[in-house]
Predict the structure.
Amino acid sequence: MLKYFTDIFETVKTLLTGLGITWRHMLKIKKDNVTLQYPEERWPRPERNIGFDLSGYNVVRTKLNVDIDDCIGCLKCARACPVDCIKIETIKAENRGEDMPQIKHLGLTSNGTRKAMVITRFTIDMSECCYCNLCTYPCPEDCIYMVGGPNSEKHIIDYEYSEYDRRNLIYQFAKKISAEQKENLQKSLNKPKVPA
Amino acid sequence: MTIDLLMDNISGFLKVPALAFILAGLICGITLFLVIALNALIAVYAERKVSAFMQDRVGPMGQGVGLHAGKWGVLQTIADAIKLLSKEDTIPALADRKLFIIAPFVIFITAFLGLAAVPFNQHIQIIDINIGIFYILAVGSMGIVGLVMAGWASNNKWSLYGAMRSAAQIISYEIPAGLSIISAVMLAGTLNLQEIIHFQAGTIWGIFPNWIIFNNPFSFLAFFVFFISGIAETNRTPFDIPEAESELVAGFHTEYSGMRWAFFFLSEYANVLVVSALTVICFLGGWQSPFSGWLNSPAWGLFWFLSKVIILVFLMMWIRWTFPRLRVDQLMYVCWKVFIPLALLNIFGVGLWSLIAG
Amino acid sequence: MVLNIGPQHPSTHGVLRLKVRTDGEVVSEITPYLGYLHRCFEKHCENITYEQVIPYTDRCDYIASMNNNFGFVVAMEELMEIKVPERVEYIRVIMAELNRIASHLLALGTFGLDVGAFTPFLYMFRDRERILDMFEMVCGARLLYNYMWVGGLSHDIPSNFEQICSGFLDYFEPKILEYNELLRDNKIFVERTADVGVMPADVAVSYGVSGPNLRGSGVNWDVRRDESYSIYDRFEFEIPLGQGQVGSLGDCWDRYWVRISEISESIKIIRQALKGLPAGDIGQALPKKIRPPQGSIYRRTESPRGDLGYYIISDGKPKPFRLKMRSPAFASLSVLDEISRGWMISDVIAILGSLDIVLGEIDR
């Protein structure tokens, strides 16, 4: 019998405590509010002070981007990808490390490496990407990276690259090469080498 | 503006009494419908805002350009209503079509009828009947027919569970609600709503308003018993087991969509209004001013009445967004083992009190 | 009546289907049907290299990805006999414990939601969000981190991390009191959870239940202490055990209590780890190529859901020959039928919420 009354008392007491908490939250809404009005306000990017200056250091996982002029076509990123969303096709360049203006092939990367390959296809299907960042580490030229991060004055952060069609999420990074130019490249490669 | 007054006025220029009766009824009905719709519109918005503020959110907002919901999201419920109106009306293939179609209207009509007897101030009352309390309680408990209809006709196990639970719940909670309102009726000595309010005029010791809640300690308890039973009757958390979303998906209205679902919604909020109004009338002095004799004109009466109702509706929302939900058997336990004994005790106490004090 | 809960239901925590045989409201039999989220994790791992397995472990228990990474790298390091730098160990412990807090917050919040309390759920998500912000600051991702690598980490923590982390802990500690007032002490919550779904210790052990669910039944077992891995033996923390304060031992309330106390213990560990965090390079022990010697290893770690075990067989190639993951939530789900017979449908939902299952891990 006593338990019956203590139970009722307990109930009233604990329920009033609960009501008090929600009441306090309601009065302090101006201070406590955590909602962002999305299109007008953006969520703040976490302040990350990495403590040193390193251009290759990338900690934001957003959209993959490739500086195709620096790509040497080594396929390391494609091999590192767990979901195979990077597809690269290359043709051996006839003149190693020399500029080919007709297909806008620069002979050298910005690091000074000679480019032996002409990249005819470099697509990243961002609808398949799992944002694991594994492709960015093995790149010898630091040319594939996630957009954004502390190193990115040139790369604006881009979280919301939404599209109406998923085919638009397949990004082509290789420079346009016409079929004729491609054929010429392949032909020149098959040419029997003239002994010096 | 009782319906009789309106009828007299109309009969003045329209000589056919039957026609005048129909016309007066129509005017009252449409007004009431608008009141219910407006109530739902405001209450849904308020519910969203209150819940949002309690949960450190801001609720519907609209700033900037584009298709936003107005400043502070005030147009949100209107947008919702338009969405519901334009939605496809789906009826499950295996549902009992006739019952499925009528059920929302049955529930709506009961809420509608209940509101007809509520006095908003000294004059605004559609119909002033001398058994007002009895009428509202009777009509309110009719709503269960619609719920069971909806649950059964949907031919869905969740709906059936919801309907069965709500049948048990609403019928059980009728008893403490009815018993605790008897305490008020005993003090006022009448079932007429206006007369109960008139009984609460004046002050106690010149300070407190002479409301029934302050009349004696037992009627103070009766107020809480009635109000909590009222929450249970309107199926709101912590007593929302018929539509418990985490258990029964949506309970009896799982299969409803579009405008039919909106009718359930309208009637839920109309029920909230009726229960709050009844509590205000029976325990908080109806349209009486809290400062006796001051600002007691009909216009102020409407203001006092509505502000009291709004406070109670807010209390309901506050409770809803704080507590977990009870289980079916615990709900029954609270009803039969706590509230009914308490309500009986209240009747006894109030009787004793009025015998000694009066 | 046979009732079909799920796969689309508000409180199945993913895509779980329960076939419930009921007598009125009382449940007489439950059959869980799994596999709606099956992604062939184990078979898939045989076709990818060890580095590429780590992002897949993220996706098993997506609520506590750091702990999954942790379990895998600990097993791999033991197989390859790598000694990782001190700093890496400390950072790993901090991250794993932060993620344990985040995971428990989600578990308790949805548990509250299952019994009908909406507000604590959002409070807990608000605080979980701050932990996720810290993870984003550290590794750039909010949910699927791929942060711990075999022999190291993908990034060092930023130089202002310690300050932000301890700031968060100071903010967070008083909030636990608030959750407790809203849920633990609330009489309606107590009524809904105390004495409900009692899991006796012998049942829990025989089903292989582990983690907070096991400790809720009063069994004193925590892999962090009893089979210490990484540097957990350096920290002082207690293992909260269910005592049946309001009901009987091993009920839903005890599981709630164990989780909320574990949050406090995790805070203790993080504070100690932040204090002892040494300086140094994190990349020293990163192997050039991950090619473990022939052999096999089974290593278990304490994830927020229990003993998370990885069994790896290596044949000396860069891809695992076989990889088996022991999922703690799977065992927790198997016990559901046993402990919820005779209770009502509402209780089944509450018990399911208290067991804290993650379907991504059960189906793998």
Remarks:
- Helices of chain A lie at 2-27, 29-32, 76-80, 179-190.
- The first strand of chain A starts at residue 64 and ends at 66.
- Chain A touches chain B at residues 4, 8, 15, 18-19, 21-23, 25-26, 29, 32-35, 37, 39-40 (CB under 8 Å).
- Residues 154 and 163 of chain A are 23 Å apart (CA to CA).
